[in-house]
UniProtKB/TrEMBL annotation:
Organism from which the protein derives: Rotaria sordida
Keywords: Disulfide bond, EGF-like domain, Signal
Name of this protein: EGF-like domain-containing protein
Top-level taxonomic group: Eukaryota
Signal peptide annotation: 1-20
Disulfide bonds: 197-206, 241-250
Domain EGF-like: 167-207, 211-251
InterPro entries with a match to the protein in the record: EGF, NOTCH_homolog
Length: 306
């Protein structure tokens, strides 16, 4: 386990009223117009209950209604700044993820150019297309798995060999735990799906539940490491369980290697996780493996399928 754990905290806005809030009944509880709606520009409305929805914004920076990335009240938080005097305007384009462009003045040609650099210093370059031209049906690209003559494709890819990128489908079959919401983002380049966690939850799929307060000698059991996350005046302690343990304090052991082989991870099955036990120095070594996002481990075929 890495000694340095980076925790990303996303903020969501829970909307509720005296009337039932529904993302799809025309009431538009997140205040999104025809352009800024659902996955367009990274804005999203997700049903969290019969009378409430979760509204998320590009990058998880702030929630407003409507939450528009180009019109923040604090100019320092706007994605486009006028540090070099070249900024013309900020445009919320019909895209995924961060979903904006900065319209800047090209000082050489005096013709506007689009860029995503915050001070209009670099020309805009489109994300690299991650699809391939693989035609062999038995060769599955982008993490796809070959089952007979068929490729099982992860979320975000389609085609007979999973060679066609479909970013708007990156949340397909991705399940976040503890009422987390799946969203499409591009924080480091290519678009990817991430789980936006509610307060007191963390982890790749919001699977770790924390407790308010400081870490102590009794916070975590069975060798689990305790870490603290401070947001404003709120301090939360999280236990990072060793493999095969679960619970807020990692107090329950739910899996240990019976024999060498691959086994379903009952705690994280819907998130594509499974266990692999291998012989090592007279014993058994336990490892957690992961299918590509959107795929699940099938104990019958011993492979990742959809």
């Amino acid at each position: 386990m890495n000694s340095l754990i980076v925790v990303l905290v996303f903020t969501v806005f829970l909307y509720s009223s005296g009337e039932a809030a529904n993302c799809n009944d025309g009431s538009n509880p997140c205040g999104l117009d025809a352009v800024h709606y659902n996955l367009a520009n990274g804005y999203q409305c997700s049903q969290s209950g019969p009378n409430s929805v979760v509204c998320t914004c590009p990058g998880g920076y702030e929630i407003d209604r409507p939450c528009r990335i180009c019109s923040r009240s604090n100019p320092l938080q706007n994605p486009c700044r006028n540090d070099t005097g070249r900024l013309i305007t900020c445009l919320e384009n019909n895209d995924l993820g961060t979903g904006y462009s900065c319209l800047c003045l090209n000082l050489i040609t005096q013709i506007p150019e689009q860029t995503v650099h915050p001070n209009c210093g670099e020309p805009f370059t489109s994300p690299t297309n991650t699809s391939t031209n693989t035609t062999a049906q038995s060769s599955c690209a982008n993490g796809g798995v070959s089952i007979g003559t068929t490729c099982k494709c992860p979320s975000g890819f389609i085609g007979t060999s999973c060679n066609q990128s479909q970013p708007e489908e990156l949340c397909r079959n991705v399940i976040c735990k503890n009422n987390g919401a799946c969203a499409i983002r591009n924080p480091n380049g290519p678009y990817e799906s991430v789980c936006l966690c509610r307060a007191s939850f963390s982890g790749e799929y919001c699977e770790i539940q924390g407790t308010l307060g400081f870490c102590s000698s009794s916070s975590c059991l069975n060798g689990a490491a305790c870490r603290e996350v401070v947001i404003g005046a709120t301090r939360t302690a999280y236990c990072d369980c060793l493999l095969g343990y679960r619970g807020v304090k990692c107090d329950t052991r739910y899996f240990s290697c019976p024999v060498a082989g691959k086994f379903r991870d009952d705690e994280m099955y819907e998130q594509g996780k499974y266990f692999e036990c291998s012989n090592l120095a007279g014993g058994l070594r336990l490892e957690r493996k992961s299918c590509a996002k959107g795929l699940r481990f099938n104990t019958g075929t011993q492979a990742c399928t959809d």
